[in-house]
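Study this one:
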Amino acid sequence: MTAGLILLHAWWGLNDDVRKRAEILRKEGYTVVTPDLFGGRVAKTIDEAKALTKGEQDNEETLTRMVDEAVSALGQKVERIAIVAWSFGVWYAWKMGISRAEKVRALVLFYGIGPNEPDAPTNPVLAHYAEHDEFEDLNFARQVEKEMKAAGRDVRVELYPGTKHWFDEPSRPEYDKAASDLAWDRTRAFLQRHLGAARSSL
């Protein structure tokens, strides 16, 4: 059976950046699922994105269930699952890393990480952080990394000098191709270590 990936979009919604990344990963042999947490709505501006996520607290249970169902459905097709998430999606990836640890073998997080308390994922975590990020606190990420490593967990926070939030998203002016390519080189190596080959050798 092949390895599977769940991609959890940023607050822009399921836009072309995520769809194109999904196609790249499918061509590499992964079975890829892209849950649409906003029901087809896509934002292009920060104000539009804020409007889409305004009711997140009220909808968290529903969105968590959607992601959980995606894990269950993909788990019927593949033996090995990882979640890749960007900003808004990071919290839901983190929750699955805790509640579905038997299915989700690894997490790849762009510009975000969850708290270490009261729980944290026991499976490997790779987090990509921009150096100049107005939305995410690198000091918090480093503290979580330190605490989780002290507990014997496999976690790594990678910093990309000179970058800003959204450096991995080609549709954004903050996109940094060199940093994005490096992040995906690291991600592929991480997934290879923890999921094995994307395609079955059988």
In short: The two ends are 8 Å apart (CA to CA). The CA atoms of residues 127 and 148 lie 13 Å apart. Strands lie at 3-8, 31-33, 80-86, 104-110, 125-132, 155-164. The first strand starts at residue 3 and ends at 8.
